[in-house]
Amino acid sequence: MHMSRSSAIRVVSSDTMAPAPSAPHIAHGSAAVIAEISAGLLAADAQTSPKYLYDSLGSKLFEAICELPEYYPTRTEAAIFAQHGADIAADVGPGSVMVDLGAGNCAKAASLFPLLQPAQYVPVDISRDFLLDAVGRLQQRFPHIEMTALGLDFSSGFELPASVGERRRLFFYPGSSIGNFAPHEAIAFLRRLRANAGADGGLLIGVDLIKDSDVLDAAYDDGLGVTAAFNLNMLRHLNHLIGADFDIGQWQHRAFFNAEASRIEMHLEARVPQTVRWPGHERHFARGERIHTEDSYKYTEAGFIGLLEQAGFAAARVWTDAGGWFAVIHANVNAD
Ligand code: AVJ
User: Which of 6, 19, 220, 282 lies 20 to 30 A from 239 at CA?
Assistant: First the structure.
């Protein structure tokens, strides 16, 4: 397994690029990132990976989403931890190597340090600079916890560096980010976590549950338009990464619950016909044509336990809120 360093921003020298008519569009992404994004934009049904929602501004917009009245997952999960934290901590046990996947501002993990008492904290996030900022501040608040920040993309697989303790790894994957994977991909990802968790390792994961579609739709299409800005910001990020000339004003946010597939879909929809160009490529979009930017799968409790079982995890305990909107699950590598 290899970690791709998607946040390693290599500047492609300008002589490798087609001459730009007006403003020069410079690609700042690595060759692999440019190839991945180009392939998605050129596909018949254009799509991009949701990981490109998270540049520094995107991470801040996501923080703002978590404050919205419509976006229930963050506060519902926090309420579960507030109510059942002691019970969860007793199930996990102290002294683990807490590997925080998609750590962002590290706030969720930090709020659990007093309860979980990890020996080492390993936040991982694709938004590297944002992460390093947060960890610098956190290390001052918790000087006794060893911290190893990893600014990388873990979505396609990873190998943890030798500085990360090998035993008792607790993969912490809150916020229902697992929802970004299709179920079969989620099983493969969970299998990799299990293989990397070490002796007595485990997983503490947050999972968003299926609920009334009005609640789901509002959570991903809020009245203030923060989620719209979050989605549209991906076009700014793509302009930066591949040197494209997306005109943000010509696109609009679309988000809705697809009940058949049990997922929220986010798309960017062209308001007018247009051609988007980037070095070596162009793509025409008809009016109303969409770029699929994110899926966020929703599960039943039993359905997700089924995924964990297929991934080879043993015992699992589940905590939910009174409304049954969200689940926090602790799954062990070994039965005990
Ligand atoms: C960070 C993937 C959990 O799917 O709810 C929020 C991202 N997208 N609003 C989610 C997101 C639009 C979020 N995750």
Answer: 220
Ligand 1, atom 1, lies closest to the CA of: 177
pLDDT tier at 24 (50, 70, 90 boundaries)? low
Distance CA 233, CA 283 (A): 19
β-sheet bridge partners, residue 274: 285
What tokens were used for 40? 């998605």
Q: Whose CA is nearest to atom 8 of ligand 1?
A: 220
C-alpha separations of 51 from 170, 299, 320 in Å: 23, 21, 27
> Do residues 265 and 255 make contact, with C-beta atoms less than 8 angstroms apart?
yes
Strands 97-101 and 169-173 come out as: parallel
| Residue appearing with tokens 């919205």 | 68
Cβ proximity of 292 and 41 under 8 Å: no
239 closest CA partner among 266, 265, 268: 268
Given the CA of residue 230, which atom of ligand 1 is nearest to it? 12
Identify the weakest region by mean pLDDT among 31-35, 120-124, 161-165, 276-280. 161-165
Q: CB within 8 A of 13, min separation 6: which ones? A: none
b/e map of 239-252 (b: 16 or more CB within 10 Å)?
bbbbbbbbeeebbb
CA–centroid distance, 74 to ligand 1, in Å, is: 10
| Ramachandran bin of 241, using left for φ above 0, alpha for ψ from -120 to 50, beta for the remaining angles | alpha
Q: What is the pLDDT of residues 169-211, one digit of tens each?
A: 999 999 999 999 999 999 999 999 999 998 889 999 999 999 9
The answer to whether 80 touches 153, Cβ cutoff 8 Å, is: no
Average pLDDT over residues 99-106: 93
Write the pLDDT tens digit of every residue in 118-165: 999 999 998 888 899 999 999 999 999 999 999 988 887 778 888 998
CA 230/CA 62 separation, integer angstroms: 7
Pairing of strands 169-173, 202-208: parallel
